[in-house]
Amino acid sequence: MHNFTPFPVLKTNRLILRNLLESDVDAIFKLRSNPExxxxxxxxxxxxxxxxxxxxxxxQNKTKExxxxxxxxxxxxxxxxxxxxxxYRIKPEHFRSEIGYMLLPEFQSNGIMTxxxxxxxxxxxNEMDLxxxxxxxxxxxxxxxxxxxxxGFIKEAxxxxxxxxxxxxxxxxxxxxxxxxxxxx
Length: 185
Fold this sequence. Notes:
- By secondary structure, the protein is α+β, with helices and mostly antiparallel strands.
- 26% of the residues lie in helices and 35% in strands.
- Strands 1-2-3-4-5-6-8-7 form an eight-stranded mixed sheet, with helices on both faces.
- The radius of gyration is 16 Å and the shape is globular.
């Protein structure tokens, strides 16, 4: 099991991936209450800043317990949260994790998430000693599928009516990358 204390800050050419703070509550509320950013995530929209704060505290607790790690995605010139990314479901016994990510719509389609995923994948393989990393997405989210493929993930499965949410059955696509196949380590 990996220990996330002290919290690892990651840097790329344009980004700083830092710890999620309680002061990020407004940005988390903006992310999780936005129908556009939540369109492919089978979770209810946040309806209050209290719900956003509860989400931050959940993430912080998972990090303290070494059960998951999530970063605030920030541009280097401005450390305000514009998205989140992390290894939020870790299976240490299988040397595997699932990554998840969200980005405010005004920052999408300019390579930010591709850059963030690459850094989080490198951290997973190099620091957490993972063998494989998966991304589980809504198959209708073609942008998410493309960003995973840009980072070397392969679509492994498409499960029909895999989850039940909000009165309907939803399909799920699973992408993954193996350490031995990662070209950017």
